[in-house]
Amino acid sequence: MVQKAKILLVDDRPENLLALEAILSALDQTLVRASSGEEALKALLTDDFAVILLDVQMPGMDGFETAAHIKRRERTRDIPIIFLTAINHGPHHTFRGYAAGAVDYISKPFDPWVLRAKVSVFVELYMKNCQLREQASLLRLQLEGSEKDSGESKESAGLLAELSARLAAVEEQAEALTKQLNDESTDAAAVATAAHLERKLTGLRRALDALDPGTGSPPSVSSQN
């Protein structure tokens, strides 16, 4: 059963939260409300989120200050933040949003279809990262099992083959997602995140190949050049 991604909605106005829920409900993910920056930070202490939709103008801790706290925490610094604001003071105000760590900055009223599409990209990237972590966890278990009993070589080979097949499926999906993002000229941040995911997959593939005696790395030829 595929676990749903969590999306954090931060706004001090209940009607705005209700509108966001109506727009994003079609994504069929878990939507979590926070009515203040402080409440958002508390939610981030215990749950993992695919993306944060953060209102800029809030009493007390505003969106910029909330984002600064999020980016200072190691656990949450890589979560994409989309700023939502009802005001626009020009390029300087927008730049402040990006400087605070936002991946996007959207002025209200916004196109519901555009917002849903942007959020869906980050949800998909999050799900691919979750798959990658699961494959890495399986690989670690395999390594531990191999160290405990080297005599189970046939079983180990079977598990390695299964891991390789699962990783290949994730690699194919990540490649297709990266191509889609490039073709659609999506946000640069989303493209960069997808590229980062592919680099992680490449590293995992090299580690997996190194464990399989049948797919060892070719000898270096740098000294012959």
UniProtKB/TrEMBL annotation:
Any coiled-coil ranges, and where?
A: 160-187
Whether Acyltransferase counts among this entry's keywords is: no
* Location of 4-aspartylphosphate modifications: 55
Record keywords: Coiled coil, Phosphoprotein
Any Pfam family = Response_reg
Response regulatory domain location is 6-123
**Gene3D superfamilies per record:** 3.40.50.2300
Which top-level group of life is the source organism from? Bacteria
Q: What is this protein's record name?
A: CheY-like chemotaxis protein
